[in-house]
Amino acid sequence: MSKKALSLTQTAVLLALIVVIEYLMVGPQYILIKGSIVNLILVVATLLIGLPAGILISIFTPLLAVVTGHLAMPVLAPVVALGNLVFVILWWLIVRHVKESKSLISYIVATVVSSLAKFAFLYLAVAWYILPVVLKGLVAKKPPIKVALLAQFGMPQLITAVIGGVIAMLILPRLAKAIQSIGKN
């Protein structure tokens, strides 16, 4: 199998996994689990398949959430996609440019920096743009929406990004070896 075909296949498998997760984990009780798994998949796709795979999955994930009804306001999909892009691009840049590439140090730095950046971007985008500009009329009529959106795009985003990054640190070395051994056969 060519490298391009293998990359496409691996990306498709990760996308399919996200589809399954979206349909199986329905309800607020799964938010932290689902978010952590999605962030893990974003990191795995970016570091093991390549940045284009991470970008594709970053954009696809919020669109799928809109289609499945898990992202109630479609206007939030571009914000979530951009937050995911911040996350994967920072992971990719940090792991590629830290002196000890693909070491525990680069993974820790990538987890901390990319998680904080994603959290800050999402929270500020919702607080400073989506609520006061895009949803201004709705927020005026239903003030609890503001509280709910700020809560949804607050600490849960940081927590799930960190959990996804920590799990990635634990499994990436073994997963990379497994993929290399499959490629040799």
UniProtKB/TrEMBL annotation:
Recorded coiled-coil stretches: none
Database matches in InterPro entries: ECF_trnsprt_substrate-spec
Segments crossing the lipid bilayer: 6-25, 37-65, 71-95, 107-130, 150-172
Record flagged with keyword Protein biosynthesis: no
Keywords linked to the UniProt accession: Membrane, Transmembrane, Transmembrane helix
GO molecular function annotations of the record: transmembrane transporter activity
Statement: the UniProt record of this protein carries the keyword Transmembrane: yes
Entry protein name: ECF transporter S component
Species the sequence originates in: Pseudolactococcus raffinolactis
UniProt lineage: Bacteria, Bacillati, Bacillota, Bacilli, Lactobacillales
